[in-house]
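Dear Dr. H.,

I hope your travels went smoothly. While you were away I took the liberty of generating a structure for the chain from your last submission, since the lab meeting agenda had it listed for discussion. I wanted you to have the full record in hand beforehand rather than looking at slides cold. The sequence, exactly as received, is reproduced here:
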Amino acid sequence: MSTGFLLVVSGPSGSGKGTVCKALLERNQDLIFSISATTRKPRPGEIDGVNYFFI
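The corresponding predicted structure, in token form, is as follows:
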């Protein structure tokens, strides 16, 4: 197994984290966006395994 690289994008709400992540993913096909898990119910439009893993 090859060694991976972890990049954390952190900032307050509305700071542009999503915009930065989207731009990085569009520019580099080797990047993968990790999917978080949550125990809350899905919100309208959210898809299990895409937006979150709902457990």
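Two observations you may find useful: The mean pLDDT is 94. The first helix runs from residue 17 to 27.

With kind regards,
E. W.
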